[in-house]
Structures are given as structure tokens and as C-alpha cells.
Amino acid sequence: MLSNLVLKIEDLFANSALHDFLQLALLQCLELGSKLNAVPGEPAPPHTPRLRPPARFVEWNIWQLFESATRQLAQRQPASPVMLAANVQDVISPPSIAEAEGPIEPARASAGHKSVRQLVSELPPRSVSLILTRPPQLGRTRWALPYLWTGWLYGHEESALLWPLVRRRSSDWPWYLRAMRATLFALQKTLKADGHIVFIGHDRGLAYHEALALAAAGADLRLESALYHPSEREAPTKPFSGLRGDYRLTWTPGPPAPPWPMSLDELATKVRQIAVGAAEEALQRRGEPAPFVRLHCNIWDALAQQGVLQRVMSIKEPLSPLGFVRKQVKAALEEETNQTFVQLWEDEEDGGCLWWLLQPPDVPPLTERVERTVYETLESAAAIEALEFMRAVYQHFPGVLTPDAEWVMACLKSYAQQIESGHWALKEDDRQEQRVLARETVTRHLDTLGQRLGYEVSLGPQGFDVQWGKAGKEALGFVVLDSAALNCLLNLPPTDEFIRTRKLVVISEARQDLLRLRLARSMWMRKQLAASGWQFIQDVDLQKWGSQEEVTLADLDSLVGLDPLSIQDRTQLSLI
Length: 576
Prior knowledge:
This protein is an alpha+beta fold. It has 4 domains: 1-33; 123-134 and 172-357, no CATH class; 366-426, Arc Repressor Mutant, subunit A (Orthogonal Bundle); 434-566. Helices cover 44% and strands 15% of the residues. It has helices at residues 2-12, 18-32, 62-75, 88-92, 116-122, 140-154, 156-159, 163-167, 173-188, 206-218, 264-286, 292-305, 308-313, 321-336, 366-379, 386-394, 405-415, 432-452, 487-490, 496-500, 512-521, 523-532, 539-546, and strands spanning 128-133, 191-204, 221-230, 245-253, 341-347, 352-357, 384-385, 416-419, 423-426, 456-459, 466-469, 476-481, 502-507, 534-538. The longest helix has 23 residues, at 264-286. Residues 563-576 have low confidence and may be disordered.
């Protein structure tokens, strides 16, 4: 199939403007169709020195990938024409009008294929305002096939720049750190005093962040901002393992490394102090347990911003900077476990845990703040385009607060409906006045139902919206909930009467899917609700129960569960 596609492109489109277009589409489908790629939605396979597919992979249809690639390229809006210079120098110092033969339009860009060393040699010092790039991945296996494909489609000369990455017999993160330090040091010399260099990394692991942070510090670059966005669900991991994600790291020229005033032991102590403080700050700001990667990002950013990584890179002793910092961070967190931090294990055999604080902060969980912001964003606009919506939400949650897209989109779909032109609008039933009316309706229904069952009904005691009480009988307390904000259930005062009361949450049918996802994502919340004895009942089931001519308390048991995951549709089977 591949050879036929290449031959057809060369035979039918050799002198056509479509030739380069089709080659680009073919290059894309070659990259996507490799068996070395992970199954979509699963973590990327670990670095391996051999071209060996992972245990699970997708065997793609190359023709379908080629069709998809050509459609995607064809759908792109044509960009405004840009005058390209023959070389970089003509962009930096365009030829004067007097030197030109007739009127000319100044060139605003130069397109080429160069190594960093070649590019830097053509750029004057301190002349660049912005460098935006995606660093190479680690490992010769990552580059072996692209090297082959580039040579196959474009020839030996074009693939030659990839050869240094392929020819190495072995490569590891310390080697990657040294290589990137040299690259960043060369690029740093081209930046203006207020210039920036931005690295974008897609679906990368913890080691990528660590190596680049140390490389930049060793090149006298100052970290201005670091953003991490998980590319998979924020599930429990091993205590010092991370979830893959997208990174955006921004640096600007900084001062040179200071003279060496610290001993190695003093530096190790400093790394540990910053690690504990940054990890504690991350959890306090988020207000909920988090996987290690969230602590890791804040720790390494703090080490960079406080100049500690720069000091580590200036150590003259023969040690591995990566190994040194990793060892101190791990030791610091292990020492503070059960002192400052606790590890919340989902399954001891599975080895997955979340990190949390021994003394939790009194702030709403990030999950609930995101849900509230989504609702307020939708409420403030008659309709909003999806990208504009995401920007509006994410600007409220910078840095360590950046939520994952799964939860943001789940909140959007729970509260909004998609209208024409790809815009979203708040559902009519979720407008504030309708939500108040719905809560009042459920409260009145509970009042009437409790009286029918012979209970004394009271409104608002002990944090419950409605409470049923009867001498000699177990009291029942109800909380009416029309959101996925479950933390309020854990903050009710645990009086003796509260503990003896059977606790039920009446959940809105509209929030059922969102609550299901919230509990599926948070084993900590599930365990807390189970320990407190909370059970759930849907508002529609409550109404059906109350609409019967005869009601008994025994019927309630068939309607409730520990969480919405256990609540099933209750449609009758007519054939039974």
C-alpha cells in the first residue's frame, strides 16, 4: 500500500502543486499508523532501545489514514500570503529600496531546515523576541522511522539532520539533559533582554519536565511560567510516578549562576525544604487530594524560580543533577508522610494513591470550583463558542489549578446544550430561577411524603434541607442537591443526633451523569461518603414513590444506594 501510494503520487502529480500537499499527508499517516504508538486513550509505552511494538497496539488501515490526512489538510483555511526571504539575514536586515530592482515588499519570514547550530550562527546576538518550539523526544527509536520516512520521501539531504539522533547507540535522560543544555545555551545568546523561549511538549512524562527545567537553569534561563495539562484522567498512581500530559514552559534570559556559597549538604537541605513547601502549597490551593504529578510540577517550578536548579547545575562534583534532585525530593516527601502529608491508597495491591494533607485546608475542592465557574460562564452568555468557553474557564485556574479537560467538558455537557453553529447555551431547566423552583418542589414533596408516613417534618435542622422524626424510630435527613458539589455533605457538624440519623441525598436527574463521573474519579470522596453513611436517591424516583396511593418506608430501601453509580433505570419490564 505504501509503495503504491508513493509511486502514484510521483507518477500522477510530479509537476503539480498537489505533490507536496500529498507527500505531507502521507508523512502524517506514516507517523500515526506506526505500531509503536500507544492505543488511543492509553498511556504511551516506556522508552525502549528497540523497534518493538507495545503489548497492545492498533493496526491502522493506511489508506483510511491517508484519506483522513488529506481531508484535514484540505479543510484548513488558506493563510494570508507571506513574503518569504531567501535567508534569515534578509528578514533581520532587509535590503534597502535603493538596492532593489523596482518596488519590493519586505520579507517577513524565512522558511528553512537547519540545525540549531546553523540557525544561531546566522542570528545576531540579542536580536530575537520569541522562540516557539517543540523539543525532540528522547531515544533513537523515536527517530529511526521518521529518519527512514524523510529519506524515502524527500531524499538523503533532507534526512541528514536527523542522523545525529539516530546514530547514537544509547540515550538516556542525563544525555538528553546535556544535549538540551547546550542547545538552550546557544539559543539564549540570541534572545533580547525581554525575549522569551517557549517549549511545547505533547503527552510527555515527568522526566521530560525535569530534564528541561535543569537544562534551562544550566543555560542561565529564568522560568517565567510553567503549565501542565494532563492528557489522561487524574487517577491514583504509584507514590512517585506521574501521569503524562501536555507542557508549556516559558523562559526568559536570567542572571548568571551565583558564586558557590553552599555545601552539597546545604543544597540538599534547601531542595528538601522547597519540595515540602511547594507540595503543601499545591494541595492547599487545590483543596482536594491529587496525584503525584500535581505536586511534582509545583516542586520543580519552585526549585527553578528560586534559583536552586541553577545552583545544582553549577555543582563541580561528579554527580548526576537529575539523580540528585530526584533523590532529595523523594526523601523530603517520604520524611513528611504522616507528618504533613498522607497517602490515600485506592488498592494496596494495585499500588495507586493520591497525596493529601494531614490537616486539610478550609477551601472548596477545585473540582467544585470548576463546576461553579462553568455554570457562571454559561449563565453570563446567551450562547458561547466552545473554544471561547474553554478560554473563559481556564483563565480562572492558572498554574497548579489547571483542571483536566474531561471534567470541564463533563460540566459543560451537564449544564448546557449544543445549538447550531457549534455554540453552547445554558439549558432552560438549569437557569437559576428554574433550579430554585425545582429545589422548592422537591422540598415540598419530602414534606408531604414525610407527613403521609406519620413523621414529624422539620425544615433545615442540622444542615439537612428536610428531616423526618418519630419517637422510637430512626430519623431520616434529606439534602436536596442539584449539582455535583458533594463536599458540603462532609462538612455538616457530626453531632450525636446527626450520626444516628439516616442520611440521604436527593439528586437531580440532570446531574446524574456528572455525579457518576465525580465519584468514579475520586475514590477519596467515595470512601468519605461511605464512612459517613450517605445514600442517594433520584428526584424522579422520589416523585414516583410519593405518587403511589399507598407508601411504606420499606419501599425506600429499593430506591437508594451508596452512590449514583448503583442507581439503575427503574422502568418496568412488562413481560415479567
